[in-house]
Amino acid sequence: MFSLTVPNMATKITKTIFRDREVDEDRFAIVKYGVEIFLVNVTKGIIVYSAAALLGMLWQTLVVHLSYLMIRRHSFGLHAKTSLGCTITSVVMFVILPYFVKDVQLSEWMIMLISSLILLNIAIFAPSDTENMPLFNAQKRHNLRRKSIINTFFVLLIMLLIPFGEVKTLILLGSTLQTLMINPCLYRLLGRRYDNYEFS
């Protein structure tokens, strides 16, 4: 039902945006698509953070989510094929997993090892494109890789400076999740094509 109502809502909102102007079909479709993406993300956010609130996990979910987004901003990676799949995956990644790992205490050497593996994977595999959004421009890929490394280093530095073990674990979880999203092994496991710019 949700998937049926979002396009209808997006159409109504887009018509409201252009109510005083004539617009061609292509322009209307582009704006409508943007509105749909916005509505889906808002709805997904409401569902994820409502689930977090029910489990008393609001700040933990926020820490994992922000860590993930900071690195994902330039490294990109896998997307779910459907809105429902994306919502379910988001609840699992940002609510269920943090719920089970929040009390895990990691030793200093484990933290350093995991941090090094995260940074290494970002340096090797970022950015990762998808079939729908191939990254054809080599210079752009180079710039995105550099920004991804800087973002990851910044997130991990914050994690190392924070004195609270639970927060360290949650930041590492968010960083690890995004590292998995760009890893070619997960692409192959899910039957998705990697390095899509090579198939132009």
TrEMBL record:
UniProt KW Signal keyword: no
Pfam families documented for this protein: AgrB
UniProt-annotated location(s): Cell membrane
InterPro entries found in the cross-reference section: AgrB (IPR006741)
One GO cellular component term noted in the UniProt record for this chain: plasma membrane
Transmembrane parts of this sequence: 46-71, 83-101, 107-127, 148-164, 170-190
Location, primary (coarse class): membrane
Single GO MF descriptor: peptidase activity
Entry keywords, A to Z: Cell membrane, Hydrolase, Membrane, Protease, Quorum sensing, Transmembrane, Transmembrane helix
Keyword Transmembrane helix: yes
Membrane topology: Multi-pass membrane protein
SMART domains: AgrB
Biological process terms in GO annotation: proteolysis; quorum sensing
Function according to Swiss-Prot or TrEMBL: May be involved in the proteolytic processing of a quorum sensing system signal molecule precursor.
The family this protein is said to belong to: Belongs to the AgrB family.
Official protein name in the record: Putative AgrB-like protein
